[in-house]
Each structure stands twice: as structure tokens, then as C-alpha cells.
């Protein structure tokens, strides 16, 4: 994955060493909510939770900062996961019917997650077990015995198989077939039919030898493993969905496909039960959907909790995704915006006196978020999650990162956030296993995401878990079609069922014009600029008090007197008349609206000069927000460019664009090639329709044949050449070498750069004198590639500090003595020019040499790993191929480059944002940011430990540990390994002996297989990789030795 | 052409020991440049960078013997020639000389054109590096600069058969898929449909995607050098037909090495001058970039023909080279405003820096 290539004369050993001290690439942690979760598991002993996804990822979460990520070698949906409680082992079932055992093990003081064993279970859906018995068919349910020694697998064919743990070997003599059950079933019940697939297996809460087994047809039995007899028969006739024990073992509850559940008494005196004690259809009497899962939890303080999902009236609420919590007469129908995947309850670690379970919290995993309900506080409020933030509650449209946030601003933002959502529940986060060993973050990092619905969300990105801090809405100052804070939360008094909206995922945007395009924030003055799709530019100030005021509105005509253009796109957003109430937090002071109201493509802010600059596809403007008047407007349109008027930014097209994006999202989500499980859910229907629409509406390809490319230089009248790509303020030498002063720079899509000298009055005279802008220079890059970024370097070659950074002693003053230079990055090349006389100093033609184009650039300060105070400013660049290149500044010498994002992942590349100190974020799915590090020193990765007490001797497993710093990315960039059939679903006509063989470790477990991992991920092998590889095989050897030592120790030792 | 020569840059070799007579050399130059009936003034730069004339056997021999190893020869049409350019330190003080030349405009009678403007010396598209390439390959330079013609070709994905250590293997390749009628590629006849693209400006394309190669070609579009394996192998340039100068299209070389690095460096050095950015300094109102910069002062480039005099075994030269030395500096609009009596040069042009 990592490619080092030192180009040109990279032979200077000193420089090579320095490079090693400065640069290192790693993907460190995934922030946000896993894309397309498919299964959930909880370990009540270790208090950790696991989420599996459709792409085969396994993510384990405990206390904030305790995180593990693993990825199955196959890209297959993780259909089930089960912890061996307290063991640090996790058994996962994929939908290719393979079982995988994961282990959390300790190495160098930290815990790591690794797949240790996999077995393939032959059999596919629809496999006819009758013809080929005994055969393991498709697994439907898994139960891990509380003793952690046996896994019971219920199958589609109706058989129950037992595997020894942790070796995953089949205990053939224990296998339980339906024939054996049917012998004890009365003839009239049998009526010649099979019992159907096993739907549920539950261990007796008090007597581990007894298993409760339920079959699809409705038969439920209690099976005594020791005597191999049927203890009890419950002759249900309703199609069974799930089963649960009451804690004492005296009652069981079964849920059914008709939306009802039944409570059965376990009466030891008689062997058969014909009728349940109670049978109800909670949302009847009209036909209801199935109750997929049901839990029964006893409670000291009153009636037991019955918690189930589904069961909604088919006709009226069949499309809702609900979990119902019923305690006595109290019923809450928790209404989610996406499909319920699974849920569990969290109890106190030890069972209270009297055998009560006393559930503390209900944890519900839905497709787009995780919701935790406090069951001990009346009203069952939600507990805010410290991680797994649903980043995509509205689609992310842009992101912005601020490093080294001053404490004061930090506290004010947190304060604003707390007032926004008062904590309803006093309960602490219940899933708090493990210990976070990572150092406290040395500095506060703030990540801002702009969303489609006009909100800006503030995230604490300082550490491993991304925490929501504050949410800013901009929709309330505009008149939009539908009011916000609408009826969603106001449940009608008499409404039945008693729906309660929970969660925050809201995929629908009221008005696409509200979408946030660009954000800029000054961390010293807490001034912020937010710009959106309809040309709106909002200047905001942070206020700790709530306020009600009118927002002053200004319009800036960017077309100037350009004739012959008519805007055919969307209208501008109409601001509300009169005063608007604002909560404490960022409050808008001025609204600048661009004419025509095209999406804002660039924005920048200089809080010391009270200036904000903004650009669209038509031109750019400069606005003095202190005096509230425009300073400058400049049209950048080329006369021949007609597309800018009706181009992709108009209303029709922007709708198409968002459709296309959602289409892309669907496509992306189908990377695994699996169809969604419930294709009938309304949201997926909408998406499917969207996808079809997008295909129809998509503009015809420019080329007739897709595999043909025209070779022509760019010309001035290419479409959208006037799009303003970047804006920049600098205090530098523009007009002569003797006097420096405020300047503004703008770069366009056609390679033009405009530089203005600004006359900014001194602080005291802001109100008296207006700011003036005088065009100083125009530069036309001959290659006409879009200008991605502009920066001015001081006499020492360092980037100029931010406003107020110097006056507040937070940065060294720039060198104003030496001559300044200007770094212009276009999509094709980097160039450094001298100032004030613009002449080319150095350049690097990236596209001409590498065939890739620049997508994102940032000036990054890299600190050395070895010497404390050595740091270097470099240029980091992400290309359209997803590679990251680092160059020296101002020499523009290439240093290293790394493959980071798949080149097909266009939205991932577009979403990338670099931090000032060598980290970065990009979206790997609509809901997840991957965090990466380019620096050796500045790395934020999970570092945690989990105390595991093993009951089993681990020696049989320990032959295969390899050191994998981080597994391949869980989503998106997963490359399927070579299909070596290590545990592919075997042919159905195997003999029993062969099945036995199939359970033995596959080739993946052979010691040699460790070789595959480091080598097959990259084409270029480097010294580093070879070292890594050697290290990992040494590690394996060491582990092997440890393992043999372990064998000598008694079982049940505590491994830290 | 009315104001000067078209782009005529030739690199050829002479035997240092037997330079021959000036008349022969003069004839050769006329022949090479296909200007048999035009009177020209021949000059060269000596080791000190002075521009000295060649007009008799003596200074011709002197020029050849002092060449080290490259002899740069300048040819100017006699009637346009500027004699004041000759003299000591002309090259090192080129800017000054030129500036003087330009500043003295006022007291000169006729419109003073020292050397034609760069666009008049437009280099032409050609086949290059014939000697360092296998005969099955062809390296083509498409020189876009100064023409209105589009490059005029399309590329596509395809597969080609390669000889590898494992025998014949089919590998993906990039091919010319279509030529636009009237485009540079079609009108010069240098590229043909189904030619396989092997290199772009010295960088191999194998392993690169169609989009990458497209981007590389566009990034180099002003001076695009493509190495192809022509689909039609019958028209290959036959090596060792050393009729130097007979075909203005190909210049030969005996450089044994064909490593791309050499080419790359070579091209990079050359590139420095191939495309430069326009800078307009302005203290006035915001205005559009003029398509044509009207200017009274332009620092002209001396256009040179470089004669590589390398003592390689057979005396032939590595390759053709075009060297447009543009002067650095900015065009100041202010000057123009303050000096309205300045005359503009006839040749309005995009000023490149």
C-alpha cells in the first residue's frame, strides 16, 4: 500500500534520514458511523460492543478511545457476531456461511484485534439437506454456551451442530437432527412435515445443559444435552421468529411472524405444553408485520421489560422501523428513520438480589446510527453517544479543519452545544469496557462539516473518538418551503401506536439551496463565514447570549456590466423579514448574496481587516463586514462561456447532481456486490428510483465512445473557465519591494490569478474610512489549468501566519526583510514566483511527469520524530489518483508519495482535508471519515487495553499471530484477496470425512500465510516493507514461543 | 514571410578538422533552411558569448575551431539585420544590448526590427531522435505553439503483444484512435490511427491509464513529444541515410544511449523556456486580460540555431534542439501610459516571460 519512490537525485543520505524522521504514512482510525452495519454483539463481562458491516468489517467499541477494527479477508456481509463473554474472543458468521474467530490479544501493553481462525461451512441457501444428510447447511442461528467451550449452530435444514471452541472443530457425536426431535412429537402435530429451519437457540439461564430450540414451524423444545432427551415440548402453531427466556427459567416468550408474541410457562411436571399462558398481538387487530426479535428482562422496580422490534400494523405503519419497549402498561414505540439491525440491553455486571436483571440501557443499532435509551430514568431518554457519530445525518457537503484551537473558543463552542441539547439523561455511557492508553491529545482540533440541509456541525477531532460539540443551523434565517422544527417531534396525544422519534438521521433536505459549500473560521476572533449553494455568504459571530435581531442583507453583482448573460438557475434564498431569534452560539450578522445566485466555490476571511472574500462560477467579491459594504466585485467569465449561466450549478442540474451523488452513494454501498437484505424498505425503493432517474437524467457523455480521449490543450473559452477556485489574503509585497501591505489573491479555473492591493484603514479608523482594492497584477498561467491554491511564503520560505497569530504571540513573525515569494498550485503544476516582481523561481510539473492531477493541496508543518524542535514546512498534495505527494517548499523537490485513496473513489478524494500538522481526513463512506497521518510525530490512533480472563488454554490458537499495525481499511478500499479457496463454501456432495476436514484450519492458518499479507498489497517492495515483513515473521516466531510457554501454565490464568 | 523567417532551427554537424570553405558552409545553410535565394547575414557566438559575424573563410574557421562543442549560428535576413547587435559581450549583456536597441528606437528612422518576433521563428513539428531509437519506433514532436491548428487526435485503450522473458504476452497499451481532419497530427502525417503510444515527453506510458496519459499529453500539449510504434512499419525512417540536411524533417544523431532519462533531462532543460505565464501589472482599473498585449517595449529573444559540435565518433550530432531564450522581466503597462509617444511594435503578441 505504501509506495516509496525517491525521484531524481535522492541520494543525499542526510536528506534521506531527515525524510524518514519527518514523513510516515498510516491510516490511523475511522471516525463516524460504520457504513451499512449488518450485525451487533455485546460482551456483558468486558462491556464492549461489536458492529459488523456488509463489507466484512468488524468494529469493537468500549469506553471512548477503546476501539478495534478488523476486516474479514472476504468482502461478505457479517450476518452474526457473538462474543465469548469475558474471553476477548468474537465469533462472526459471514453470509458466505463461513465462521471466523477473532481474538483481542495483548502486545506491548496494548490490545489488538486479529482474526485467528476461519472455517467454511459447506452449504448454500436452498440447499436440500434431505438429499445429503448429515450435512452442515446454512447456519441460521448461533448460540455460544456460557461456559465458552461449545458453539451451537442452528441451520436451515433444521439440524443443530456443535463446535468445540476455540478450535472450531465439529463435535459430531453431539449433532442433533430433527428426526430425533420428531420421535417425541405427537403424530397429529407432525403431519408429515419438516419442522423447518432452526429459528432460535437459547441456553437455559440457570441450567447450562438445557437448550431452548425453536423451529420455524412453531415447535419449541427444551433439549437436555447431557441426557440427549427432549425435556419439554411447546407445540406452537404460529410461524416462529425468535425466543427468549425469562431470567428464572420458568417462563419463555416467543415472537411470531403475525406480529404477536406468546408467553409460555415452563412446567416441569408435564412434558408437553399445547397452549401459551398469554398470546397477544400488541399492534393488532389488523394484520401486523413479524416481530423479529424479542427480549424479556426482569426488573426489581416493577414489571418486566418486554422489548421487541417490528410487529407494526402492516397497512398503516408497515414502513416504520420501530422498537417497542413495554413495561407493564407503559409502552413506547421508538420510531427510527432507518432499518433496525439489532438491539441488546445492558445490565449491571452482577445480577441483583432476587435474580432481577435490572436493565440499565437499551442499545439499538439501526442502519444509519446507534441509539442508546436510558431505561432507568422515567421517560426513557436517550443517552448521547461519545462516538459513532452519525456524520451523515444530513449529507456532508464540505469539511474544514482547525488545529490548535484556543481553549477559550473551545469552551465557548462546547457551552453553546450544551445549551443546544440539554442532557436528558444523567446516565453515563454504559458501554465502557477497556482502558484508553492514548495520551491526552496535545492540542485541540476542530473538524467542521457542512451539510446539505444548511447545518454546520462542529466535531472534537482531537482524539480517537470524534465527538459532536455543536450544531449550527443556517436555514432559520431564510424563508423556505417548509418550516423547520416541524411536527416530527410533536407526537399527537391520542396517536396509536405511541410513536417517539429517536435518533437524528434525516436523509431528506428541504431545499438544496441551503447546502453549505465553503466554511472559514478565525479561531482567535470566533468569526466565521459560511457560504452555500444559492450564493449566500453568512458572516457569523460567536455569542454566549441568545439574541433576536435582524440580519442585514447585501447583494453583490458579480456579473458587473457583462452583457448577454441570463441566469437560468435557481433563485436566491429569500431572507426572512424582521428580527429572527438566535440561540447562543454562532449568530449571523451579515448576509451577502451573490448575483447571480450560483453556488459559492471559494471563501476566505481576514478578521484583522474585517474582510471576507467569496467567489462563484461568475466572479469574486470582497466585502467589508465591519462597515457592511462591498469593496470589490469582479467578473471572471469568459465571453464565450455560456455554460456558466445554465451550467451544472443551476437548479435543475443541481438536483441532478444530488441525485447522481445519491446514486454514487448507492453504488458505493454496493461495493460488496451484495444486494440489500430488505430491498422492500421504502428508503431503498426511493434510492433505487433515484438511481434510475439519475441514469436517465445524466448528461450524455461528452465522448461518443467512452474509451476514447481527445488530446487538445486547454483554451480560454473552455466551459466554466471563470469558476473562482481559491481566494487568499496576505500581507506582502505586491507593488514594490519596499512596502508591504494587505493583498487579496484569486485563482480561477482557467489558470488566471488576480492580485489586488488593499488599502485597509487602521483599527481605529475602520468606521471612518472604507477599504479600497486596486488591481495589482494579473497572471495568466500558460497551461491554463485550474488554480487550486495560492500561498505567499516569507523571506525564510515559511507560509505567512494567520491573522492575529503573531499579535497574540502564537506564531513567529514572518520575515518581512527577505523577498517574499508566491506559491501557485494549479491542477497540473506547482510554481513559485518571486514578489513583487513576478518571475518564475521554481516549478514542478506534476501532470507532465506523473500523469496525475492535483486535487487538494495544503502547506503542512512536519515535526521531526528524532529531534524535538526541528520542523519543516512542506506542500502536501492529493492527486486525482488518490496518491499523496509531499514536496519541499519553496524548492518543490518531491520527497515521498503514498497511495491513500482508491482512484475510483471520487467522493473520497473530493472530501479530503489536510490538517496543519500532517494529518488528514477523507470520507470512506457517507458516514465515515478515515483519519490518516503523514507525519511521524503527529499520529492519532487508538491505543487501548482490555483485560481478558481466558478460561481456555490459548495455545492452540497462538501459532499465527502476525503484527499488523492496521488492517486494510474497512470500507471502500478493500481489495479482495486472491481466491485461494481457503474456506470457500465447499461442494455440497462432500462425504462426512471431507466435512470434517473442512473444519480444520484452512491454508490461511498455516504459518506460511503470514507471508501473503505484507506482500500482496503492493507492487513495489521497499526496504521498509521488507523490514516490516521481517519484523512480523519474527513476531510470529516470538508468539509461537510464548504460546508454548503458555501451554505450561495452568488454564484460567489472567493474561494482561 | 514579410518580417522574417519562419521557424527554422536546424542542428547539424560538421567535422571540426575539415570545416571546408565559407562558401560551402553558406550554401549548406541556405540548403538546410531552404532559402537558396535569400541573402543572409551569418553570425555566431564565441566562447565569451559575443555575437560575431561569419563572412569569410577565416572567421568561419575560427568559429568552427572555437566551438565548444556547440556552435550557435544566427542567421538574419540581410535587409533586416541589426549590425549593432554584433560586438563584444553581446550575449552576456544580451538584455542590455537589446534594451539599448529598443530604447534607441526614437532616433532611428525605419521601424527597427532586430530579429523577428518569436512566433515568426515557430518551430515545426518533426520526427526527432531517429538515431537513438529502434527503427520500429518513431519519436514525433508536435509543436502547437503559434499555430491555430488543433493537435487533432484521440487516444484509446488497446492491447499490444510484447516480447517478454516469459514469451509473448499481451499487455494493455494506448493507441491513436482517431485523427481530426486538418489537425496538426493529420496534416503533418506524423501520427496515424492505431499507432501505439509508448512515451509522452520521455515518460513511458506503460502502466498508466488512458486518463493519465490524456492528462500527461494535455499538460505537455504545447510541446508534445510522443514516441510511437507506428501501425504501418513500412514507412520507417531508414537509419544511416546521412544526407544531412537533405530532409528538413529529420536530424540524425549518433548518441548511442537511448535511456529515457537523458531525454527527460534534455527535455526538461528545454522546457524551461517552452511555456511561460503572462503577467500583467496594472495600477489602473480592473480590466480583462488582453488577448494581445499592446506594448511598446518587449524584450525580444534572440533566436538561435545551435550547432552542436560534438566529437562523437562519426561526427554526427545528438539531436535537434530548439532554444528560444526568452528574456525574463515583466511588461509594464505603466510605462506605456507614461510614454505615449512610444511606438508600438507591429507584432503585437502575447508576451511570455
From TrEMBL, chain A:
Primary site of residence: cytoplasm
Region spans: Disordered: 670-691, 962-1056
GO biological process, alphabetically ordered: cortical actin cytoskeleton organization; establishment of spindle orientation; exocytosis; Golgi to plasma membrane transport; regulation of establishment or maintenance of cell polarity; regulation of Notch signaling pathway
Pfam families cross-referenced by the UniProt entry: Lgl_C, LLGL
MF term (GO), any: GTPase activator activity
Domain Lethal giant larvae homologue: 280-381
Family per similarity comment: Belongs to the WD repeat L(2)GL family.
Annotated protein name in UniProt: LLGL scribble cell polarity complex component 2
TrEMBL record, chain B:
InterPro entries: PAR6_homolog, PB1-like, PB1_dom, PB1_Par6, PDZ, PDZ_sf
GO cellular component: apical plasma membrane; bicellular tight junction; cell cortex; nucleus
Domain of life: Eukaryota
Subcellular location: Cell junction, Tight junction; Cell membrane; Cytoplasm
Residue spans of biased composition, Low complexity class: 241-259
Coarse class of the protein's main subcellular location: other
Region: Disordered, residue numbers: 235-262
Keywords: Cell cycle, Cell division, Cell junction, Cell membrane, Cytoplasm, Membrane, Tight junction
Classification via SMART domains: PB1, PDZ
Sequence ranges assigned to domain PDZ in this UniProt record: 139-232
GO biological process: cell division; centrosome cycle; establishment or maintenance of cell polarity; regulation of cellular localization
Residue span(s) of domain PB1: 1-78
Assigned protein family: Belongs to the PAR6 family.
Name by which UniProt lists this protein: Par-6 family cell polarity regulator beta
Origin species: Apteryx owenii
Lineage: Eukaryota, Metazoa, Chordata, Craniata, Vertebrata
Amino acid at each position: 500500500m505504501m509506495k516509496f519512490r525517491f525521484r531524481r537525485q535522492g541520494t543525499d543520505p542526510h536528506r534521506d534520514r531527515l525524510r524518514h524522521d519527518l514523513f510516515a504514512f498510516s491510516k490511523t482510525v475511522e471516525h463516524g458511523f460504520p457504513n451499512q452495519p449488518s450485525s451487533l454483539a455485546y460482551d456483558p463481562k468486558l462491556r464492549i460492543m461489536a458492529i459488523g458491516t456488509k463489507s466484512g468489517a468488524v468494529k469493537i467499541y468500549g469506553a471512548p478511545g477503546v476501539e478495534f477494527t478488523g476486516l474479514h479477508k472476504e468482502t461478505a456481509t457479517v450476518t452474526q457476531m457473538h462474543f465469548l463473554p469475558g474471553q476477548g474472543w468474537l465469533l462472526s458468521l459471514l453470509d458466505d456461511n463461513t465462521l471466523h474467530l477473532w481474538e483481542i490479544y495483548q502486545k506491548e501493553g496494548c490490545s489488538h484485534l486479529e482474526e485467528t481462525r476461519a472455517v467454511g461451512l459447506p452449504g448454500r441457501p436452498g440447499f436440500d439437506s434431505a438429499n445429503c444428510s448429515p450435512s452442515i447447511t446454512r447456519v441460521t442461528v448461533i448460540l455460544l454456551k456460557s461456559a465458552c467451550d461449545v458453539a451451537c449452530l442452528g441451520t436451515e435444514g433444521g439440524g443443530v451442530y456443535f463446535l468445540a471452541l476455540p478450535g472450531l472443530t465439529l463435535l459430531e457425536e453431539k449433532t442433533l437432527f430433527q428426526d430425533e426431535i420428531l420421535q417425541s412429537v405427537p403424530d397429529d402435530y407432525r403431519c408429515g412435515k419438516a419442522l423447518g429451519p432452526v429459528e432460535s437457540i437459547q441456553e437455559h439461564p440457570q441450567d447450562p445443559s438445557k437448550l431452548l430450540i425453536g423451529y420455524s414451524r412453531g415447535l419449541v423444545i427444551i433439549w437436555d444435552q447431557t441426557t440427549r432427551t427432549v425435556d419439554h415440548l411447546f407445540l406452537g402453531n404460529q410461524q416462529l421468529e425468535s425466543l427468549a427466556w425469562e431470567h428464572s427459567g420458568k417462563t419463555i416468550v416467543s415472537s411470531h411472524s403475525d406480529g404477536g408474541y406468546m408467553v409460555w410457562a415452563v412446567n416441569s411436571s408435564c412434558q408437553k405444553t399445547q397452549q401459551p399462558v398469554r398470546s397477544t398481538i400488541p399492534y393488532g387487530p389488523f394484520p401486523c408485520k413479524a416481530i423479529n426479535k424479542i427480549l424479556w428482562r426482569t426488573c426489581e422496580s416493577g414489571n418486566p421489560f418486554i422489548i421487541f422490534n417490528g410487529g407494526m400494523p402492516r397497512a398503516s405503519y408497515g414502513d416504520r422501523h420501530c422498537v417497542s419497549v413495554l413495561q407493564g402498561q407503559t409502552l413506547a414505540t421508538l420510531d427510527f428513520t432507518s432499518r433496525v439491525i439489532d438491539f441488546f440491553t445492558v445490565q449491571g455486571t452482577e445480577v441483583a438480589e432476587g435474580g432481577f436483571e435490572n436493565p440499565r440501557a437499551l442499545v439499538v443499532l439501526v442502519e444509519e446510527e446507534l441509539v442508546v435509551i436510558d431505561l432507568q430514568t422515567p421517560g426513557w431518554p436517550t443517552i448521547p453517544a461519545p462516538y459513532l457519530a452519525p456524520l451523515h445525518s444530513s449529507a456532508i457537503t464540505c469539511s474544514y479543519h482547525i488545529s490548535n484551537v484556543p481553549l477559550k473558543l473551545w469552551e465557548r463552542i462546547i457551552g453553546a452545544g450544551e445549551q443546544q441539547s440539554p442532557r436528558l439523561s444523567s446516565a453515563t455511557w454504559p458501554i465502557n469496557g477497556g482502558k484508553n492508553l492514548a495520551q491526552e491529545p496535545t492540542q485541540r482540533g476542530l473538524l467542521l462539516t457542512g451539510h446539505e440541509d444548511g447545518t454546520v456541525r462542529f466535531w472534537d477531532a482531537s482524539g480517537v473518538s470524534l465527538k459532536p460539540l455543536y450544531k449550527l443551523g443556517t436555514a432559520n434565517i431564510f424563508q423556505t418551503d417548509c418550516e423547520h422544527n416541524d411536527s416530527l417531534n410533536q407526537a399527537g396525544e391520542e396517536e396509536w401506536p405511541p410513536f417517539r422519534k429517536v435518533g437524528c438521521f434525516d436523509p431528506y433536505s428541504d431545499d438544496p439551496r441551503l447546502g453549505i459549500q465553503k466554511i472559514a473560521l478565525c479561531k482567535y476572533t470566533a468569526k466565521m463565514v459560511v457560504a452555500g449553494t444559492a450564493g449566500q455568504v453568512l458572516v457569523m459571530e460567536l455569542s454566549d447570549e441568545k439574541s433576536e435581531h435582524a440580519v442585514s442583507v447585501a447583494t453583490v453583482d458579480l456579473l458587473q456590466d457583462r452583457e448577454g448573460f441570463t441566469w437560468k438557475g435557481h433563485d436566491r434564498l429569500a431572507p426572512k423579514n424582521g428580527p429572527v431569534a438566535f440561540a447562543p452560539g454562532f449568530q449571523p450578522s451579515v448576509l451577502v448574496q451573490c448575483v447571480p445566485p450560483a453556488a459559492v466555490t471559494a471563501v476566505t476571511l481576514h478578521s484583522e481587516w474585517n474582510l471576507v472574500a467569496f467567489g462563484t462560477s461568475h466572479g469574486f467579491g470582497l466585502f467589508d463586514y465591519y462597515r457592511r459594504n462591498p469593496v470589490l466585485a469582479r467578473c471572471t467569465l469568459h465571453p464565450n462561456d455560456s455554460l456558466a449561466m445554465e451550467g451544472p450549478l443551476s437548479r435543475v442540474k443541481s438536483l441532478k447532481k444530488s441525485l447522481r451523488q445519491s446514486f454514487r452513494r448507492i453504488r458505493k454501498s454496493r461495493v460488496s456486490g451484495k444486494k440489500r437484505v430488505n430491498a422492500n424498505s421504502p428508503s431503498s425503493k426511493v434510492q433505487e428510483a433515484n438511481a434510475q432517474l439519475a441514469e436517465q437524467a445524466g448528461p450524455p457523455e461528452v465522448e461518443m465512445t467512452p474509451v476514447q480521449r481527445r488530446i487538445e490543450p486547454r483554451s480560454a473559452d473552455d466551459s466554466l473557465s471563470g469558476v473562482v477556485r481559491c481566494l487568499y489574503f496576505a500581507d506582502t509585497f505586491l507593488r514594490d519591494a519596499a512596502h508591504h501591505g494587505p493583498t487579496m489573491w484569486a485563482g480561477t479555473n482557467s489558470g488566471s490569478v488576480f492580485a489586488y492591493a488593499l488599502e485597509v484603514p487602521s483599527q481605529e479608523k475602520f468606521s471612518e474610512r472604507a477599504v479600497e482594492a486596486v488591481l495589482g497584477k494579473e497572471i495568466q498561467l500558460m497551461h491554463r489549468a485550474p488554480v487550486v491554491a495560492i500561498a505567499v511564503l516569507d523571506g525564510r520560505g515559511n507560509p505567512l501566519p494567520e491573522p492575529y497569530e503573531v499579535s497574540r504571540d502564537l506564531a513567529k513573525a514572518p520575515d518581512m526583510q527577505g523577498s517574499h515569494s508566491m506559491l501557485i498550485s494549479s491542477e497540473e503544476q506547482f510554481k513559485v514566483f518571486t514578489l513583487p516582481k513576478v518571475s518564475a523561481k521554481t516549478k514542478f510539473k506534476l501532470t507532465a511527469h506523473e500523469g496525475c492531477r492535483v486535487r487538494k493541496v495544503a502547506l503542512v508543518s512536519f515535526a521531526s520524530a528524532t529531534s524535538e524542535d526541528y520542523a519543516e514546512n512542506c506542500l502536501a498534495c492529493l492527486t486525482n489518483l488518490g496518491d499523496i505527494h509531499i514536496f519541499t517548499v519553496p524548492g518543490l523537490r518531491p520527497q515521498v508519495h503514498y497511495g491513500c485513496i482508491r482512484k475510483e473513489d471520487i467522493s473520497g478524494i473530493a472530501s479530503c482535508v489536510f490538517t496543519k500538522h500532517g494529518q488528514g481526513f477523507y470520507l470512506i463512506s457517507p458516514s465515515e471519515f478515515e483519519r490518516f497521518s503523514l507525519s511521524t510525530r503527529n499520529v492519532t490512533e487508538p491505543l487501548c487495553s482490555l483485560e481478558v480472563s481466558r478460561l481456555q488454554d490459548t495455545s492452540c490458537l497462538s501459532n499465527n499471530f502476525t503484527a499488523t499495525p492496521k488492517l486494510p481499511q474497512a470500507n471502500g478500499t478493500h481489495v479482495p484477496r486472491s481466491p485461494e479457496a481457503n474456506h470457500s463454501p465447499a461442494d455440497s456432495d462432500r462425504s462426512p470425512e471431507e466435512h470434517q476436514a473442512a473444519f480444520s484450519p484452512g491454508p490461511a492458518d498455516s504459518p506460511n500465510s503470514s507471508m501473503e499479507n505484507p506482500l500482496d498489497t503492493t507492487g513495489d517492495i521497499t526496504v521498509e516493507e521488507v523490514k516490516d515483513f521481517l519484523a512480523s515473521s519474527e513476531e510470529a516466531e516470538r508468539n509461537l514461543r510464548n504460546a508454548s510457554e503458555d501451554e505450561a501454565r495452568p488454564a484460567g490464568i489472567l493474561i494482561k | 514571410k514579410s518580417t522574417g523567417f519562419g521557424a527554422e532551427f536546424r542542428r547539424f554537424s560538421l567535422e571540426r578538422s575539415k570545416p571546408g570553405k565559407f562558401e560551402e558552409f553558406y550554401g549548406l545553410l541556405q540548403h538546410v533552411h531552404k532559402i537558396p535565394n535569400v541573402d543572409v547575414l551569418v553570425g555566431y557566438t564565441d566562447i565569451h558569448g559575443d555575437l560575431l559575424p561569419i563572412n569569410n573563410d577565416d572567421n568561419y574557421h575560427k568559429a568552427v575551431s572555437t566551438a565548444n562543442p556547440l556552435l550557435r549560428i544566427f542567421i538574419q535576413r540581410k535587409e533586416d539585420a541589426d549590425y549593432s547587435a554584433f560586438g563584444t559581450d553581446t550575449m552576456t549583456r544580451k538584455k542590455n544590448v537589446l534594451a539599448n536597441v529598443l530604447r534607441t528606437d526614437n532616433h532611428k528612422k525605419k521601424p527597427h526590427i532586430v530579429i523577428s518576433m518569436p512566433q515568426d521563428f515557430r518551430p515545426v513539428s518533426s520526427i526527432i531522435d531517429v538515431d537513438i531509437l529502434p527503427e520500429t519506433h518513431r519519436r514525433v514532436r508536435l509543436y502547437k505553439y503559434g499555430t491555430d491548428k488543433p493537435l487533432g487526435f484521440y487516444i484509446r485503450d488497446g492491447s499490444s503483444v510484447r516480447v517478454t522473458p516469459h514469451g509473448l504476452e499481451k499487455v494493455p497499451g494506448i493507441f491513436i484512435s482517431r485523427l481530426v481532419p486538418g489537425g496538426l497530427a493529420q496534416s503533418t502525417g506524423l501520427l496515424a490511427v492505431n499507432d501505439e503510444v509508448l512515451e509522452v515527453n520521455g515518460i513511458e506510458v506503460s502502466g498508466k491509464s488512458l486518463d493519465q496519459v490524456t492528462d500527461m499529453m494535455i499538460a505537455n500539449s504545447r510541446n508534445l513529444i510522443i514516441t510511437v510504434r507506428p501501425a504501418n512499419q513500412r514507412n520507417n525512417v531508414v537509419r544511416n541515410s546521412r544526407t544531412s540536411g537533405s530532409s528538413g524533417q529529420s536530424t540524425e544523431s549518433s548518441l548511442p544511449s537511448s535511456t529515457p532519462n537523458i531525454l527527460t533531462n534534455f527535455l526538461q532543460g528545454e522546457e524551461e523556456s517552452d511555456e511561460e505565464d503572462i503577467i500583467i501589472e496594472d495600477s489602473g482599473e480592473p480590466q480583462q486580460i488582453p488577448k494581445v498585449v499592446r506594448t511598446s517595449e518587449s524584450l525580444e529573444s534572440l533566436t538561435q540555431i545551435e550547432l552542436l559540435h560534438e566529437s562523437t565518433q562519426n561526427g554526427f550530432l545528438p539531436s535537434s534542439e530548439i532554444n528560444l531564450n526568452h528574456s525574463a522581466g515583466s511588461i509594464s503597462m505603466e510605462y506605456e501610459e507614461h510614454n505615449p509617444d512610444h511606438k508600438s511594435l507591429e507584432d503585437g503578441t502575447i508576451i511570455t516571460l
